[in-house]
Specification:
Blueprint: H1 11-17, H2 23-36, E1 50-51, H3 54-61, H4 65-77, E2 81-84, H5 94-97, E3 104-107, H6 133-145, H7 151-159
Antiparallel strand pairs: 1-3, 2-3
């Protein structure tokens, strides 16, 4: 499978939130992640937010409009997604979203704007490794062991000749 034909999911979505999400919430959240992070923004990055109509969400998830509205409200209250208008104003209440022609959705997992709080320390860039002294000493010793051989040294090693 080509990795470009896949969409990355944060581990914390499955590890932390999966047991607390209803089916409608999970379907909507996965669709929002797919429609944002799953597509290129045209500049080598990923989309931060995307306009999604209720009809589009209904066609892709099989949910009713009422279930979609309820699921979106629950995801916003759990701080897993944010809804904004075209200018970027946050629409956190259903009354604010009602009547808006275009509502843009974004997952807080991949959010660049740190002003919106995310739930349970979501992954924003990717996994990072804290290099402890033990890991550093191990990686240095591995570099010594796995020293790259020249072509001649490798040839001599394979044929059993002396490299001198």
């Amino acid at each position: 499978m080509n990795y470009r034909e896949t969409t990355q999911l944060p581990n914390s979505l499955i590890d932390i939130h999966l047991k607390n999400l209803s089916e409608k919430e999970l379907k909507i959240l996965l669709l929002i992640i797919r429609q944002t992070v799953g597509f290129s923004d045209g500049h080598g990055g990923r989309k931060n937010r995307e306009w999604l109509s209720q009809k589009f969400i209904a066609n892709r998830t099989g949910l009713s409009y009422k279930s979609i509205s309820l699921g979106i409200h629950q995801l916003i209250s759990k701080k897993l997604i944010i809804a904004t208008n075209k200018k970027g104003a946050i629409l956190s209440e259903p009354e604010a979203r009602k009547g808006c022609l275009r509502i843009f959705y974004a997952s807080t997992y991949f959010e660049i704007n740190p002003s919106v709080e995310s739930s349970k320390n979501p992954i924003t860039k990717g996994n990072t490794i804290k290099l402890t002294s033990k890991k550093l000493s191990t990686s240095n010793s591995l570099k010594k062991i796995n020293k790259r051989l020249s072509d001649w040294e490798r040839y001599c090693q394979l044929t059993g000749r002396n490299s001198n």
